[in-house]
Amino acid sequence: NHGYIEAIIGPMYSGKSEELIRRLKRAKIAKQNIVVFKPTVDNRYSKEDVVSHSGDSIEAIPINKSSRIYDLIDEKTQVVGIDEVQFFDEKIVDVAVDLADKGIRVIAAGLDMDFRGEPFGPTPKLLAVAEFVDKIQAICSVCGHPATRSQRLVDGEPANYNDSTIKVGAVESYEARCRKCHVVKK
Ligand code: ADP
Ligand code: ZN
């Protein structure tokens, strides 16, 4: 078996989960043995599934530590899917490399940049070691051009660079934006 790493990256709403689900469903059609993981921190729609903004879903196992993957796969596992890879610990890169070395197809989707436009968690390292990288775009919610960044808004206003938490009662939201329309208040 030839293992390799496929990375699907881009901003929020770019269709990363959709593309991950599409590839995994096709692997299922090919009767491949698949296991899908997501970090426990992301519970936006469902605790157990990877769900895209357009409503597609696939069953997944929420884990809080990348090394848990070893406990949850077996000799029959041929494809491992990982969503929201940016939220995993740095070890996720070693795990992905190790699985690929063992002949497993690893498909990982996640944000390449945070709301500041800076490289996000383990994603940059994963890109460096991946065989295949697809960087996909959303639609800029301001101008309609291809969006490469995630705009963080607090009560509808661009968030500050240093805001890690927000005031109780404030409403946090995100939208996809292009470089020109993306705002980070310093
Ligand atoms: P991601 O995993 O990258 O956040 P999803 O796969 O969950 O993205 O969702 C992609 C879907 O989101 C698109 O197919 C579309 O239906 C919807 N969508 C909502 N807002 C936008 C936007 N600004 N640009 C592109 N797609 C959007
Ligand atoms: Zn724009």
TrEMBL record:
Zn(2+) binds at residues 140, 143, 178, 181. It catalyses: thymidine + ATP = dTMP + ADP + H(+). Pfam families: TK (PF00265). One of its GO terms (biological process) is thymidine metabolic process. The keyword Electron transport does not apply. The keyword Thylakoid does not apply. It is found in: Cytoplasm. Its main location: cytoplasm. SUPFAM superfamilies: Glucocorticoid receptor-like (DNA-binding domain), P-loop containing nucleoside triphosphate hydrolases. GO terms for molecular function: ATP binding; thymidine kinase activity; zinc ion binding. ATP binds at residues 10-17, 83-86. One of its GO terms (cellular component) is cytosol. Its EC number is 2.7.1.21. Gene3D superfamilies: 3.30.60.20, P-loop containing nucleotide triphosphate hydrolases. This is Thymidine kinase.
